[in-house]
Design a protein that fits this description.
2 copies of one chain form a homodimer. Chain A is an alpha+beta fold. In chain A, strands 1-2-4-3 form a 4-stranded antiparallel sheet, sandwiched between helices. The first copy, chain A, is globular and about 60 Å long. Chains A and B meet through helix 1, helix 2, strand 1, helix 4 and helix 5 of A and helix 1, helix 2, strand 1, helix 4 and helix 5 of B.
Chain lengths: ~240, ~240
């Protein structure tokens, strides 16, 4: 055990922040950690958009449908960014580039998410609380407009950060026996029985945190959310609209 | 500064490993860190495939076209895994699920990459060297067959880990002034001038590491690699073949 592992094993999302800004030093540290993150083929095909304008924060919080999005010290959007290397390709004399290949989208998306998680661990090691915002994808066209995103870019994930003003409990996770396989994916269908212990554990957790919130078991949550069409059925279309194919 | 940040700021890929296995405790620690990683909506839609069979390691190293892939103590493949929640949905009585929605692919891909980076930081904090393997995507159909991957899963990223038998220098990265924007994506095209300092810095680095390796500047590397069609033109097609749409 060491302090890095302790930080990682104590991860929880923070959704209430103190009204304290980050020092310049802290901000620079987080950006340098992002810079040092592993990147596919060294292409550095991801970028960070720092949202500092209060009105823009509110507009993004509205898309996310979560007021706490705008209340952190920092709100960052991690971008797939193949536009920079596309520009550079043309500047070197190429007439066109393969920046819009779907494998380039995947490359940039991977770079963006690696960077996000590295920043989260760094922030938490400094006592900062974080919450990822997949909910930026609730309205991708509107988000693109707010962020002025050009072709060969895509908003991969949002992140709100700030000093914590709450102490949530660790959220139970399913046993890793259900998630770690050896050599090949198991040829079996999962049953309700496989999730029985986790269902009971998770229901208890919600009860403890707030008597008024849902106490659905994992099975019930999944059954509800995986029923009907997803609320983001246009996802692939929105990626393709940015020039990826 | 703290030991977590020191670990992160010293990240480099390791491609030569000592012949030392991980202890059970170390292995369990890495798996528990993976378990505690943030996950979209709590769905835990990513899994880990540990490759322990020597022949299978060789087969994957061949796809990657990198011999060191098979020489680490551990070889992990991080999976998009919506199959588990799909099975669970049906087990609760649903006739179909939205596990194959493209937004579910993105959700699982994000979960997988967050988990990979969290494991990398944990491993490095324990003195373990790591290298990501995007090269598993050189032959996705062959990889799917080796791993026995069913519908609603996808191999997102590989990771080789082991105790380092080399000490590479830190690889230069472009200035973050080129990668961090505020409030909106800049309406400008990058020029060769923007990359001049980095081009010079990167060329120096390769020279120092090994006089026989390429000394291409960043601009030349990007110009070569973004020219012509990508070598992974079937990427989107391969994702769709796994039931995502």
């Amino acid at each position: 055990m060491n302090s890095t592992l302790e930080t990682q094993l104590n991860h929880r999302s923070i959704r209430a922040f103190k009204n304290t800004r980050f020092s310049e030093e802290t901000l620079n540290t987080l950006i340098t950690v992002a810079q040092r993150t592993a990147t596919s083929s060294g292409h550095q095909a991801a970028s960070i958009l720092r949202i500092t304008d209060p009105k823009e924060k509110e507009a993004i919080a509205k898309i996310c449908n979560q007021t706490y999005v705008a209340t952190g010290a920092e709100l960052w959007i991690f971008l797939v960014d193949q536009k920079r290397n596309h520009d550079l390709s043309l500047a070197t004399g190429l007439e066109e580039s393969n920046a819009g290949s779907f494998s380039r989208f995947i490359q940039g998306f991977t770079d963006a998410i690696l960077m996000a998680q590295n920043v989260v661990v760094a922030a938490e090691s400094l006592g900062i609380g974080t919450v990822y915002l997949g909910s930026i994808h609730n309205d991708i066209p509107q988000l693109n407009e707010i962020l002025n995103l050009p072709d060969y870019t895509f908003a991969a994930l949002g992140l709100a950060m700030g000093y914590p003003d709450q102490e949530p409990e660790l959220k139970p996770r399913m046993d890793m026996a259900l998630r770690v396989y050896e050599n090949s994916y198991p040829s079996k269908a999962y049953t309700l029985e496989d999730f029985k212990a986790y269902d009971e554990h998770l229901a208890t957790y919600y009860d403890l945190r707030n008597a008024n919130t849902r106490v659905d078991s994992f099975s019930k949550q999944i059954s509800k959310r995986y029923s009907g069409s997803s609320n983001r059925d246009n996802f692939l279309e929105e990626i393709l609209k940015k020039g990826f194919k």
